[in-house]
Amino acid sequence: MIKNERQYRITKAQVERFSEALDELEGETAEGLGVHPLLFKARKDAVRSQLADLEEELREYERLKYGDFEFGRLDAVADVPHLLIRARIARGLSQKSLAGRLGLKEQQIQRYEASEYASASLARVLSVAVAVWAFEPLLLGMRPR
Question: Quick one: which of 30, 102, 119, 125 has the fewest CB in 10 Å?
Fold first, then answer.
């Protein structure tokens, strides 16, 4: 999952490299490369598959950047980190701006997202949700202290 503009640029560059590699493979034959035809086919299929995965990641990030996000159903607690990241992107918040809303440094949000919030407390995860959706605490069933 692409989580920020830097990763987006890196993924775009990877797509270009995989596209070029696939173009080169399309112009080759197994015999010309001196490999078994099944190995040659497997190599092409692997490049196609990786390229398709990267292109889907780009499309998802671009959709989110344009605000195309539905909350949907949460099937497992393990889905919460991806939901928070997708919502942040769809709301037009950078990691830096989310950090600002929470009084944190950008690097802390980067660490949370890189680890899929594994090191974050439940209270922190809730504060991220509030900051992303700009909910009032009472809407989440919490009482102010």
Answer: 119
Between CA 55 and CA 61 the distance in angstroms is: 10
Please give the Cα distance from 133 to 121 (Å, whole number).
18
What's at 64, amino acid-wise? L
CA distances from 90 to 42, 86, 119 (A): 37, 6, 24
- Using the 8-state DSSP alphabet, how is residue 4 labeled? S
Which residues in the chain belong to E strands, given as ranges?
none
95-106 confidence digits (pLDDT tens): 999 999 999 999
Chain-centre distance of CA 138, in angstroms? Answer: 30
Tens-place pLDDT, residues 107-133: 999 999 999 999 999 999 999 999 998
Sequence spans of domains, the chain: 5-65, 77-140
Which CATH class, in words, describes the domain spanning 77-140? mainly alpha
